[in-house]
Specification:
alpha/beta; binds 5'-O-[(S)-ethoxy(hydroxy)phosphoryl]adenosine; GMP Synthetase, Chain A, domain 3; 7-stranded mixed sheet; 8-stranded mixed sheet
Length: 669
């Protein structure tokens, strides 16, 4: 048994070269490791910006995650290992272990139940649940019958459910009564009720809500509601997997962009499945039949409501036949050592988390990880935002005991799977760099005209060739898909002069995928991600559009205008700063009223979007600094928010100088 799938840089380089020179030969070999009902006739059909992978092939993602393992006689092995948040003083945490055979049984029953509710191939089912095994079962049951899922993170508000259900025209929602989070219950069902009530009587009215009983909190059951346990109790156990065209939709996942409402990123079946399977295998070095004393247990701490959970808890993991651990709750419940307690209890070998979590662990202190045996760990991973070298070093030393390679994986909801990352046991790492492109990924740093930048020069991160896991579109918005990802930048002179470059004009069509991140490559070809170039901020590794937060703020009666920018934050990486102009009728009389209004506005944003979008700092201001053409000067606001009051920035185009002076004087909080 090899210790590492890719064991040397020579092997990486020759395989990478082959994957770029002959992508069709390369990916067809990988795809053959999975099950296809009918083989494809062509590997790639590339008509920029549209890629079709495994043309004419039919397959099923649930089959490859579940049934294929059962067919190969691995039905008894653990597929999903689940631990609940509450800890009972006598019996400890609740642990559930689902084998591939269990998953086959459960997904078949629930798939049949969905059919009874009228869900068919091609429908879009909304899922809004906590991290319980039924969430995995629900998504796989959808895949089983060829319905696409649209999973909404359980931390989002009912307004977020409304927006996504409307956009997807989804008629069925699967939810839970509640979910456990840091010892309290998140009222998921009540949020769904509020959304359904709003949609009632409109063309987007929801027809069925399926409810999993988890927290046993008080809920109201309406005529549209069904208990999950009642539905599956009556459902037959046999439900063959539907053969799906490789390019049939597997799921939609809504994510934030610079403008407007979140967009539904569309992923299809064949390419996504092959890509996540293969990246997971190599990046985490997944080996199903490892020696008995080295048995692998993989744990990704993300919520399935984000793409990381889709790709690297479920779809990329299960086909690799290594147990995937799902944890229900918070990292600090009941104490700040909960994660290390879990690693020790289940002898976790691969651990994948976000830099924001690592910074929180650092702050909570070394004593918590040190109180646990973490010697089972072999590979550590990070995702979601750039990791600062201090956090990287701490992760390596305190969690990895200086023996575990760290894979800093750069990718996006849109890319479906990891794109730039070290391979453990192979790629020499540099703290803070996601290192080199993975197989089939032709990544480059380009200037505004599409020319490759020399070493150590910042530019736009672009991918020059299609890859199997790439998004196939934005649901229902072809133009936005082209404008956002497939149009090169051309900087507008006027904007340049006005010092406002955050929303460049994109007006030359480009066959390259533009990620929306800026980056540089060093002299060794290593990538260093610098951050977003659009109005998207990355709060604790979660994407938010500044405009979404602004719209939420101006929806409040006291607010006339709002500008939201990112600001440095010790734990979150980027925090949210909001500059708000109030209606004269709502100007607070004193400090107490000011503080109260700030709290009200935070809560309001929490209701409109979700707790992750609550501003960390709100400043009330008489006016916002604007360019002559009326654009808010965000670059300036970013500097103010970062505390750089004495900016060297050119402010000569400021509409009103006194505005800047007032902003830098006014206290934050
Ligand atoms: C950022 C998460 C630096 C980046 C999988 C990207 C990263 C956005 C890294 C996508 C990394 C993700 N280093 N930045 N290793 N990973 N990002 O769609 O700005 O939630 O564009 O997907 O996160 O966020 P998303």
């Amino acid at each position: 048994m090899p210790k590492w799938h890719i064991a040397s840089m020579d092997e990486y380089k020759s395989l990478h070269k082959r994957s770029i020179d002959d992508p069709e030969g390369f990916w067809s070999e990988i795809a053959k490791e999975l099950h296809w009902f009918t083989p494809w006739t062509k590997v790639l059909d590339w008509n920029p910006p549209d890629a079709k992978w495994f043309v004419g092939g039919t397959t099923n993602a649930c089959y490859n995650c579940v049934d294929r393992q059962v067919e190969a006689d691995h039905g008894d092995e653990t597929a999903i290992l689940w631990e609940g948040e509450p800890i009972d003083a006598d019996s400890g945490p609740e642990i559930r272990c689902l084998s591939y055979a269990d998953l086959q049984h459960e997904t078949s029953k629930f798939a049949n139940a969905l059919k009874v509710l009228g869900v068919k191939k091609g429908d879009i089912v909304t899922i809004y649940m906590g991290m319980v095994p039924e969430l995995a079962i629900a998504m796989l049951a959808c895949a089983r019958i060829g319905a696409a899922h649209s999973i909404i993170f359980g931390g989002f508000s009912s307004q977020a459910i409304i927006d996504r259900v409307q956009d997807a025209k989804s008629k069925t929602i699967i939810t839970c009564d509640g979910s456990w989070r840091r010892g309290s219950i998140v009222p998921l069902k009540a949020n769904v009720d509020a959304a359904c009530d709003q949609l009632e009587g409109t063309p987007e009215a929801v027809e069925h809500v399926v409810v999993v009983k988890r927290c046993e909190n008080d809920i109201t059951m309406y005529p549209r509601d069904e208990w999950y346990h009642d539905l599956v109790a009556e459902a037959p156990t046999d439900c063959p997997c539907e053969p799906m065209d490789a390019e049939d939709m597997l799921f939609l996942l809504y994510t934030s962009g610079s403008t407007g409402k979140p967009k539904g990123i569309l992923h299809t079946t064949g390419g996504y499945m092959v890509y996540t399977y293969f990246t997971a295998k190599n990046v985490f070095n997944l080996i199903p039949d490892a020696d008995p004393d080295q048995k692998q247990v993989y744990w990704c701490t993300a919520d399935i409501g984000w793409v990381t959970g889709h790709s690297y808890i479920i779809y990329g993991l299960l086909p690799n036949r290594v147990p995937t651990l799902m944890y229900e709750g918070a990292p600090n419940h009941p104490g700040p050592d909960r994660f290390w307690d879990i690693v020790e209890r289940h002898k976790v070998t691969q651990f994948y988390t976000a830099p924001t979590a690592i910074r929180a662990f650092m702050k909570w202190g070394d004593q918590h990880p040190k109180a646990h045996d973490l010697s089972s760990l072999k590979v550590l991973g990070t995702v979601g935002e750039p990791i600062n070298p201090e956090a990287w070093m701490w992760y390596h030393r305190v969690i990895g005991g200086e023996r575990c390679p760290i894979v800093d994986t750069w990718w996006q909801t849109e890319t479906g799977g990891q794109m730039i990352s070290p391979l453990p046991g192979c790629t020499p790492t540099k703290p803070g760099s996601c290192t080199l492109p993975l197989f089939g990924v032709d990544a480059a740093i380009l200037d505004e005209n599409g020319n490759e930048q020399p070493a150590n020069t910042g530019g736009l991160l672009a991918i020059r060739k299609p890859w199997p896991g790439m998004l196939r579109g934005i649901y229902g918005d072809r133009q936005r898909f082209i404008d956002t990802y497939w149009s090169a930048f051309k900087v507008d002179d006027q904007q340049l002069q006005e010092g406002e470059l955050s929303s460049p004009q994109r007006n030359c069509p480009s066959p390259y995928y533009l990620a929306g991140d800026s980056s540089r490559r060093d002299e060794d070809g290593y990538f260093w991600i610098m951050g977003r170039i659009d109005d998207v901020i990355n709060v604790s590794g979660h994407r938010l559009g500044t405009m979404e937060v602004e719209s939420a703020l101006v929806a409040h009666e006291s607010v006339v205008e709002a500008a939201v920018v990112g600001m440095p934050h010790e734990i979150k990486g980027t925090g949210i700063a909001a500059f708000v102009t109030l209606a004269p009728t709502h100007t607070p009389a004193d400090k107490a009223a000011t503080d109260a209004l700030k709290q009200t506005l935070r809560a309001h944003v929490g209701n409109e979007i979700g707790a992750i979008a609550k501003p960390d700092m709100i400043r009330f201001t008489d006016a916002l600094p604007k360019t002559r053409s009326g654009k808010i000067m965000r670059r300036l606001l970013r500097a103010v928010a970062a505390g750089e009051t004495d900016t060297n920035q050119d402010t000569t185009t400021l509409e009103d100088f006194s505005v800047l002076a007032k902003l830098t004087e006014s206290e934050g909080g």
